[in-house]
Specification:
single chain; 132 residues; mainly alpha; 2 strands
Amino acid sequence: MSVPTHTKALDLAYIALMAALIALCAWISVPLGPVPFTMQTFGIFAALGLLGGRRGTLAFLIYLLLGIVGLPVFSGFSAGAGVLFGATGGYLLGYLAAALLFWGLTAKLGQTLPVMASAMVLVSRVKKHLAL
Protein backbone atom coordinates (compact mmCIF):
# COMPACT_ATOMS: atom_id res chain seq x y z
CA MET A 1 0.00 0.00 0.00
CA SER A 2 1.49 3.35 -0.97
CA VAL A 3 1.55 6.41 1.22
CA PRO A 4 -0.15 9.53 -0.20
CA THR A 5 2.24 12.17 -1.50
CA HIS A 6 1.02 14.84 0.90
CA THR A 7 1.89 12.59 3.84
CA LYS A 8 5.44 12.13 2.53
CA ALA A 9 5.76 15.89 2.05
CA LEU A 10 4.53 16.51 5.61
CA ASP A 11 6.99 13.96 6.96
CA LEU A 12 9.85 15.68 5.16
CA ALA A 13 8.72 19.07 6.43
CA TYR A 14 8.45 17.84 10.03
CA ILE A 15 11.86 16.17 9.84
CA ALA A 16 13.44 19.34 8.42
CA LEU A 17 11.81 21.51 11.09
CA MET A 18 13.08 19.26 13.86
CA ALA A 19 16.58 19.23 12.38
CA ALA A 20 16.44 23.04 12.44
CA LEU A 21 15.18 22.96 16.04
CA ILE A 22 18.10 20.75 17.06
CA ALA A 23 20.50 23.19 15.40
CA LEU A 24 18.91 26.16 17.18
CA CYS A 25 19.09 24.34 20.49
CA ALA A 26 22.77 23.53 19.91
CA TRP A 27 23.49 27.24 19.53
CA ILE A 28 21.98 28.01 22.96
CA SER A 29 24.94 27.17 25.13
CA VAL A 30 26.70 27.92 28.37
CA PRO A 31 30.47 27.50 27.95
CA LEU A 32 31.73 25.28 30.76
CA GLY A 33 35.16 24.07 29.73
CA PRO A 34 35.84 22.20 26.50
CA VAL A 35 32.29 20.81 26.30
CA PRO A 36 29.56 23.47 26.58
CA PHE A 37 26.17 22.86 28.17
CA THR A 38 23.59 23.18 25.38
CA MET A 39 19.87 22.74 24.85
CA GLN A 40 20.63 20.14 22.17
CA THR A 41 19.43 17.28 24.36
CA PHE A 42 16.05 18.98 24.60
CA GLY A 43 15.90 19.35 20.80
CA ILE A 44 16.72 15.70 20.21
CA PHE A 45 14.24 14.40 22.74
CA ALA A 46 11.58 16.79 21.41
CA ALA A 47 12.16 15.43 17.92
CA LEU A 48 11.95 11.84 19.14
CA GLY A 49 8.87 12.51 21.25
CA LEU A 50 6.96 14.49 18.65
CA LEU A 51 7.96 12.62 15.51
CA GLY A 52 8.54 9.12 16.81
CA GLY A 53 11.64 6.98 16.61
CA ARG A 54 12.12 6.73 12.85
CA ARG A 55 11.43 10.33 11.89
CA GLY A 56 13.15 11.72 15.02
CA THR A 57 16.29 9.73 14.26
CA LEU A 58 16.19 10.92 10.65
CA ALA A 59 15.93 14.52 11.89
CA PHE A 60 19.07 14.04 13.99
CA LEU A 61 20.89 12.33 11.10
CA ILE A 62 20.07 15.27 8.84
CA TYR A 63 21.33 17.67 11.52
CA LEU A 64 24.52 15.64 11.83
CA LEU A 65 25.07 15.50 8.07
CA LEU A 66 24.49 19.24 7.73
CA GLY A 67 27.22 19.84 10.29
CA ILE A 68 29.61 17.36 8.69
CA VAL A 69 29.32 18.99 5.25
CA GLY A 70 30.19 22.37 6.72
CA LEU A 71 27.08 24.22 7.88
CA PRO A 72 27.72 25.74 11.34
CA VAL A 73 25.00 23.85 13.20
CA PHE A 74 27.05 22.39 16.04
CA SER A 75 27.56 24.13 19.39
CA GLY A 76 29.54 27.33 19.19
CA PHE A 77 28.63 27.65 15.49
CA SER A 78 31.21 25.00 14.64
CA ALA A 79 31.04 22.65 11.67
CA GLY A 80 32.93 20.00 9.77
CA ALA A 81 33.79 16.36 10.21
CA GLY A 82 36.61 17.37 12.57
CA VAL A 83 34.02 18.18 15.25
CA LEU A 84 33.29 14.46 15.52
CA PHE A 85 36.92 13.92 16.55
CA GLY A 86 36.95 16.84 19.01
CA ALA A 87 35.72 17.25 22.56
CA THR A 88 32.01 17.14 21.62
CA GLY A 89 32.24 14.32 19.08
CA GLY A 90 31.47 11.63 21.62
CA TYR A 91 28.32 13.44 22.63
CA LEU A 92 27.14 13.69 19.02
CA LEU A 93 27.74 10.00 18.43
CA GLY A 94 26.09 9.22 21.76
CA TYR A 95 23.02 11.18 20.68
CA LEU A 96 22.92 9.14 17.48
CA ALA A 97 23.16 5.88 19.41
CA ALA A 98 20.46 7.08 21.82
CA ALA A 99 18.14 8.00 18.95
CA LEU A 100 18.70 4.59 17.32
CA LEU A 101 18.02 2.86 20.63
CA PHE A 102 14.82 4.87 21.10
CA TRP A 103 13.74 3.97 17.56
CA GLY A 104 14.41 0.28 18.19
CA LEU A 105 12.52 0.25 21.49
CA THR A 106 9.47 2.03 20.14
CA ALA A 107 9.45 -0.08 16.97
CA LYS A 108 9.51 -3.27 19.03
CA LEU A 109 7.21 -2.25 21.88
CA GLY A 110 4.89 0.25 20.14
CA GLN A 111 4.53 4.01 20.17
CA THR A 112 2.21 4.37 23.11
CA LEU A 113 2.81 7.12 25.65
CA PRO A 114 4.02 4.81 28.45
CA VAL A 115 6.44 3.03 26.11
CA MET A 116 7.79 6.30 24.69
CA ALA A 117 8.20 7.84 28.16
CA SER A 118 9.95 4.73 29.48
CA ALA A 119 12.17 4.59 26.39
CA MET A 120 13.15 8.25 26.85
CA VAL A 121 14.08 7.67 30.49
CA LEU A 122 16.06 4.56 29.59
CA VAL A 123 17.79 6.25 26.66
CA SER A 124 18.70 9.30 28.75
CA ARG A 125 20.29 7.04 31.36
CA VAL A 126 22.15 4.98 28.74
CA LYS A 127 23.20 8.08 26.75
CA LYS A 128 25.31 9.28 29.67
CA HIS A 129 27.42 6.16 29.31
CA LEU A 130 27.54 6.32 25.49
CA ALA A 131 29.26 9.73 25.29
CA LEU A 132 32.95 9.07 24.90
